[in-house]
């Protein structure tokens, strides 16, 4: 569990979800950012401060973050020392890969965990410096699952 660093909700309205978290739990947010992956434009934001972060993603219909049916808990995010090895490990444990960002130049993958009705996201630790620069510039490095014990 030491590599767990965020929980993600996909939402139809990022600003509304941010306001609801602010008023109910005193959560502080970074500024939402627009991004693109493949054919999908989406918006993303993380809480301020350290891990575990809350992530909100507002994605279009048909995207990996489609919230057109309603907002939902989507995934738990973990850093991994090797995305390829970690993805094989999860698939071998019966957690099939649902989506990979690798074909789009992003080293992350979502694996379905039916027992919780959501996904596990593995993010290659090589992306961590960029994450920290964008979302938590004063933050210390976070641990990753060691895929080569």
UniProtKB/TrEMBL annotation:
<dbReference type="InterPro" id="IPR029068">
    <property type="entry name" value="Glyas_Bleomycin-R_OHBP_Dase"/>
</dbReference>
<protein>
    <submittedName>
        <fullName>VOC family protein</fullName>
    </submittedName>
</protein>
<dbReference type="Pfam" id="PF13669">
    <property type="entry name" value="Glyoxalase_4"/>
</dbReference>
């Amino acid at each position: 569990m030491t590599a767990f660093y965020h929980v993600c909700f996909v939402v139809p309205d990022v600003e509304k979800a941010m306001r609801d978290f602010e008023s109910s739990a005193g959560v502080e947010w970074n500024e939402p950012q627009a991004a693109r992956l493949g054919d999908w434009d989406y918006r993303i934001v993380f809480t301020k401060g350290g891990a575990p972060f809350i992530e909100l993603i507002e994605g279009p219909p048909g995207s990996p973050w489609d919230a057109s049916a309603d907002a939902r808990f989507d995934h738990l995010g973990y850093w991994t020392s090797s995305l390829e090895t970690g993805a094989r490990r999860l698939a071998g444990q019966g957690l099939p890969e649902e989506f990979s960002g690798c074909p789009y130049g992003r080293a992350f993958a979502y694996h379905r965990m039916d027992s919780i009705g959501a996904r596990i996201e593995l993010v290659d630790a090589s992306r961590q410096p960029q994450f920290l620069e964008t979302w938590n510039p004063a933050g210390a490095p976070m641990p990753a699952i060691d895929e080569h014990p």
